[in-house]
Predict the 3D structure of the following.
Amino acid sequence: MHQIILEYLSNMEKVISGIRPTGNLHLGNYFGAVKSFVKMQEEYNCMFFIADWHSLTTHPTPENIRTSVRTILAEYLACGIDPQKAPIYVQSDVKQVLELYLYLNMNAYLGELERVTSFKEKARKQPDNVNAGLLTYPSLMAADILVHKADKVPVGKDQEQNMEMARLFARRFNRIYDVEYFKEPESFHFNAKAVKVPGLDGSGKMGKSEGNAIYLCDDEATIKKKVMRAVTDAGPTMLNQEKPEPIENLFTLMQLVSTPDTYDYFNDQYNNMAIRYGDMKKQLAADINAFCAPIRERILEYKSNEELLAKVAREGAEAAAASAEKTIREVREIIGFRN
Ligand code: ADP
Ligand code: TRP
């Protein structure tokens, strides 16, 4: 790359984020994470990756992994990540991450890892498979981030505790080796508050494992079916009544995909006790479809272009390995190993 471009990039703040390849991307992934990726690539030195090592905690088959990695790659591109601006790589192509993972694990303690909420939840959900990878999930995530010395990490609210751990491991490394080497990475979201996209089943967040997700690749009929089935109630019984969670959730989704006028129209209807949920859902389904349709078309295009996907992943891996290698050499030096 040209010297001036290199200097320009090195002065920009670094941004890293990744998503596990455990299925298709849904509206929660888009509004909670990928939308920020697309915006940030214009202003920061970004790299985005597919966290396939992290997905091994649930023992996917080789075919599962290959398909899911290809899917997320195509979906990242379809959402507007431009690999010329923000390289996209597959985590398992960048082996330097593993070396840092090992070093961080030597200073990560059982007690603190066991206290991580997502570990406790997953251990409860899969009691027969509480493996060491699940326990050390936060140190692998910290390695992903610290290996590029990232400044900012765009993630949804549910990743806050993992981000705390990444900062803790960075500080601890600096203290143990008496260096000011790692920066503490910040979580980042464009909105003042992290977005939590709700599901359509009345409570909680939209998620792959919750079985309540609308996927970016869903077709019109599927979207309509999912939205029309959303939980509602008998309607407000007082003017300007506070909305119960399932209704609030419909409005939250509407705020994300519909125009402000549409949102205001149904909000006024609710406040005046004139709301017809059937009409609101029809409108919401149409607006979700209008939002997803162009992305869906691009997903199909990219998925059929194996050559392009392979090229993006190869170039992404080169860029990521170069950045990670520099850190690993410095870390080896700090720890007392030969390079
Ligand atoms: P899932 O919960 O569906 O398995 P992941 O855990 O792989 O999704 O999340 C990938 C990214 O998408 C993370 O940055 C996460 O914070 C974000 N994300 C996932 N679900 C939501 C949601 N419902 N609302 C906001 N952000 C979300
Ligand atoms: N833990 C993240 C999730 O479940 C995925 C992830 C792995 C990640 N490594 C990361 C996100 C590094 C940001 C930075 O969504």
About this structure: The CA atoms of residues 31 and 301 lie 22 Å apart. The chain is about 55% helix and 5% strand. The first strand starts at residue 14 and ends at 19.
